[in-house]
Queue: 3 jobs
Job 1
Amino acid sequence: MSHITIYTQDDCPPCTFVKNHLQANHVDFTEKNIKNNQYRIEMMDYDAFATPFILLNDEPMYQVDMDKINQAFDIQ
């Protein structure tokens, strides 16, 4: 089964778009808002410096790839 973690920040329209898309399709996800310093450091450990930063099945996604996300969760 696929799993997804999204590193986000406040006032981030792309973050909101991805979260809303997953919620609308009943996909559970873990959100890590980088205002929490621990999550910011975790994200930077992946050499990621922009949100949303996504881990899809523990694989880093540096650019949002909705096709890949939809395929992983069988979203039509």
Job 2
Amino acid sequence: MLSFEMNDRKKIGLGLTGFGVFFSFLGIVFFFDKGLIAMGNILFISGVALTIGLKSSLQFFMKRSNYKGTISFGAGFFFVVIGWPILGMILEAYGFVVLFSGFWPTLAVFLQKIPIIGWIFQQPFVRSFFDRYRGKRVPV
């Protein structure tokens, strides 16, 4: 099993990513407040960069297979900043799904190991859904 070393930079990165998700959620709850959503985006992107490293982040976002997701996420961020948060969030959501679709199987395994929530994800109908997409990238 691979060990995941948790140094201070990665802890700060995970914290920034969490705060980014939280501020984005608050921005949606408060009727698509563009300031909160923009703050959430900045925190999320900086958290990802700190967690996996700047070089790895650039390689991930500039990979040829991730262009569609990167452009969509960037355009969504631009629309949020200029004052069209609903359109921006739709584009960002699409970009997020395209960019991180390869991580869904890993997330499914992680969720199955959580004590209470894991029971739900270990049920046969849910497990068969995740097993169908394990190891495959969803074509978009």
Job 3
Amino acid sequence: MEDFVKRNIGLVAHDANKKDLIEWCLWNSKKLIGHKFYSTGTTGHMILAALSKKHPDVKWDFTILNSGPLGGDQQMGSLIVGGSIDYLFFFTDPMTMQPHDSDVRALTRLCNVENIVVCCNRSTADHIISSPLFQDATYKRIKPDFSSYAHRFANKPLVEEAVKSVIEEQDTKQTLEKEDTPAPEK
């Protein structure tokens, strides 16, 4: 028997795609048992209710975040950057402009930066969950090394230049203020 590997799975869906994600979770519920889930507010409550109805004896491990437009997308992004998400199933609505579209773009960008599997539709999600790698206990994602980017200013005197510039500017300002101050009357 294969070793079970517990995956940390993010679940997000735009309003027009909530039913699709709920159905996908129900369809794949046996493969999802035992994993840890993080989901934005409304989506998470609905999926948890559906899974609990289908499998009343299973204790599902769900952490429900805020609603996406109310900060849930940022919370999910923070979990991705912190290494707490292995897969993000984010069913997006390509036909409707979202009021928090910048958050959506940022979230999918973070998946790319952190090399996290992200599925934005049901077809991709079907392929991912049916991949042998999904249940392969030996599979580990390769975390990109951005240390050169993070330390790109290490050998540059930016801080010293900024401090020197501000001190010189303040000294010049004080000198000008002294020159403009009339002498006290005697």
